Amino acid sequence: MEPKTNIWIEKDDKVVLSLWRVRLLEAIAETGSISAAASKMGVSYRRAWEKIQECEARLAVKLVDTQTGGSGGGGSSLTPEAVAYVDRFRKFTAGLDEFVSERFEKYFSDI
Amino acid sequence: MEPKTNIWIEKDDKVVLSLWRVRLLEAIAETGSISAAASKMGVSYRRAWEKIQECEARLAVKLVDTQTGGSGGGGSSLTPEAVAYVDRFRKFTAGLDEFVSERFEKYFSDI
């Protein structure tokens, strides 16, 4: 048996940030591309783009900058606000897995 | 904005215990009836019964005893094993909300 958790943040009963959404943003930062990030997350470009737009609307802040064409062929990157949100979220959730693992060990290790 | 979490336990990639399932078991203990517990949880009797059977199969232990008819009109109660699982799960998850709230306060209170 193993413990599992999920953690997210809501605003007006709607998800604004979650582990999944933060991983998507991190994948965009890493790959410089929404479609590469979507593929990495196992979803369609459309789905990834919808999630980003949803977060942007709910947080009322732009999260992803996209340049089309140009000598570099375009690409996407996180805005400073998105970088700050990802950083906050990672700090917020740091230690959760250890907290849960320790408690699980304490109460379920004998089963 | 507010933090949200979910916590559960899996065995062979399948849920064996979760906050929802533990609440269902607690509702059965409280009401002495699967149908009253199902109604309290906002699901059909069938759905509640399926979840219980699923947990019993995955944990390989009987969780709910049901007496039909008799002078008391029948009713359901938790087995000692179910009581022990509920107790373990509640101890396991105790403090999680406080842990998450404190961290949220630390990293998101200024937004």
Layout: helices, strands, pairs:
2 copies of one chain form a homodimer.
Chain A: E1 2-11, E2 14-18, H1 19-31, H2 34-41, H3 45-59, E3 64-67, E4 75-78, H4 80-93, H5 96-108
Antiparallel strand pairs in A: 1-2, 3-4
Task: For this entry, give a set of tags.
homodimer; 111 residues; alpha+beta; Arc Repressor Mutant, subunit A; 4 strands; elongated
What does this entry look like structurally?
The structure is a homodimer of 111-residue chains. Chain A is elongated and about 60 Å long. Chain A has 111 residues and is of the alpha+beta class. Chain A has five helices and four strands, in the order E-E-H-H-H-E-E-H-H. The termini of chain A are close together. The model of chain A has no long low-confidence stretch (mean pLDDT 94). In chain A, a hairpin with a 2-residue loop joins strand 1 and strand 2. Chain A has a single domain, classed as Winged helix-like DNA-binding domain superfamily/Winged helix DNA-binding domain (Arc Repressor Mutant, subunit A). At the A-B interface, strand 1, helix 4 and helix 5 of A face strand 1, helix 4 and helix 5 of B.
